[in-house]
Automatic annotation (TrEMBL):
The gene is nadA. Binds 1 [4Fe-4S] cluster per subunit. Catalyzes the condensation of iminoaspartate with dihydroxyacetone phosphate to form quinolinate. It is found in: Cytoplasm. NCBIfam families: nadA (TIGR00550), PRK09375.2-2 (NF006881), PRK09375.2-4 (NF006883). Keywords: 4Fe-4S, Cytoplasm, Iron, Iron-sulfur, Metal-binding, Pyridine nucleotide biosynthesis, Transferase. This is Quinolinate synthase. Its EC number is 2.5.1.72. Signal peptide: none annotated. It is an enzyme of class 2 (transferase). Belongs to the quinolinate synthase family. Type 3 subfamily. It comes from Nocardioides hwasunensis. The keyword Cell inner membrane does not apply.
């Protein structure tokens, strides 16, 4: 990275001292990660943000929904900064509150709403988390989705026919967790398409389903294919395929291991020297793992270069700009969630933080 910008970032952080706490998601660029006080997956960062009550400013190097969650989990006095406001998430954008409320109404019309517990992936806007908080639901991340689903099924265990889950907004995480970890059959999962009237489902299909999966996906993880898994297995006999649960079900079925970014890192750290790995997650993390483990062969599970373009919007110039403004007394790009949404979203986030394990 540009030595002048590195020196400016160092100076600004030194000037701010403990007043600032910089969080970096594992998908961030190296040039940004070097200035993170803590790195982690979405779950770890949510907990870390909540555990810094003395930092006046939380600079979130990640995407918008993560900064919103940090604002919800920190005190009103603390200010959360997202160095580039254009760092959104296409998956989070696939579930709008209005669409989710329409789906909820359709579930009432089908006579199943009392049996449904809404569960939203962390990768969703604050108003979707608030919807879950208001309606007896919970937030989950890729590191605790199984525990969250278990909790959700328990909430309505007494209703006739058992509980159902409305899983937002990532159909792949929902399906992978339900089928591979909860023993739910693939044909008990249906997909609600918000762009079709009635979600594209009949009332009868809704009644029979146990998992109602929102039709959302991650544009980065959705690219990994079964073909490349086959290709790499042919090229490197004995290769281990390690993927994130946002990948398609068919890809996860072909993989050896599946887990959150934190799980992927721990797995590679514990791997035998000389072992060969194909990793299906965001490229900044895969490259960093390959650099940190020269004794292991680590390849990307895609033929093409494929970064998360919105994660990558946070670069060193934006970080320096945000930090220097804080030094000068101006809070730029502050992320604030309105108090009503915040109160309801906190209920769903707190339920997640209180889950066992
Ligand atoms: P985790 O941080 O939960 O592994 O999720 C990955 C992701 O896509 C974040 O945007
Ligand atoms: Fe969203 Fe996927 Fe990027 Fe994560 S990797 S921020 S889910 S688009």
């Amino acid at each position: 990275s540009d030595p002048d910008l590195v020196a400016r970032a160092e100076a600004a952080k030194a000037a701010l001292g403990d007043r600032v706490f910089v969080l970096g998601h594992h998908y961030q660029r190296d040039e940004v990660i070097q200035f993170a006080d803590v790195t982690g997956d979405s779950f770890k960062l949510a907990r870390d943000a909540a555990a810094r009550p003395n930092a006046e400013f939380i600079v979130f190097c990640g995407v918008h929904f993560m900064a919103e969650s940090a604002d919800i989990l920190t005190s009103t006095a603390q200010q959360v900064v997202l160095p580039d406001l254009a760092a959104g998430c296409s998956m989070a954008d696939m579930a709008r509150l209005r669409q989710v409320e329409d789906a909820w109404d359709a579930m009432a019309d089908a006579g199943i709403q009392d049996a449904v517990v809404p569960v939203t992936y962390m990768n969703s806007s604050a108003d979707i988390k608030a919807f879950c908080g208001r309606n007896g639901g919970v937030v989950c991340t890729s590191s605790n989705a199984d525990v969250a689903l278990e909790w959700a099924f328990d909430q309505r265990a007494d209703v006739d026919g058992g509980a159902k889950i409305l899983f937002l907004p990532d159909q792949h995480l929902g399906r992978n967790t339900a089928v591979l970890q909860m023993g739910i059959a693939l044909d008990e999962c249906v997909v609600w398409d918000p762009l079709q009237p009635g979600g594209g489902l009949t009332a009868d299909e809704l009644r029979k389903a146990r998992m109602i999966l929102w039709k959302g996906h991650c544009s980065v993880h959705g690219r990994f294919s079964e073909d490349v898994v086959d290709e790499l297995r042919a090229k490197h006999p004995g290769i281990n395929v390690l993927v994130h649960p946002e990948c398609k079900h068919e890809v996860v079925l072909k993989a050896d291991l599946v887990g959150s970014t934190e799980f992927i890192i721990k797995t590679i750290e514990a791997a035998e020297p000389g072992s060969v790995w194909a990793i299906g997650t965001e490229l900044n993390l895969v490259k960093r793992l390959a650099d940190a483990h020269p004794d292991k062969t680590i390849v990307f599970l895609d033929r093409n270069v494929c970064y998360c373009s919105t994660m990558n919007r946070i670069d060193l110039p934006h970080l320096v700009w945000a930090l220097e403004n804080l030094v000068a007394g101006t809070v730029v790009n502050q992320i604030t969630v309105d108090p009503e949404t915040e109160a309801d979203a906190l209920v769903a986030l707190q339920r997640m933080l209180d889950l066992p394990g």
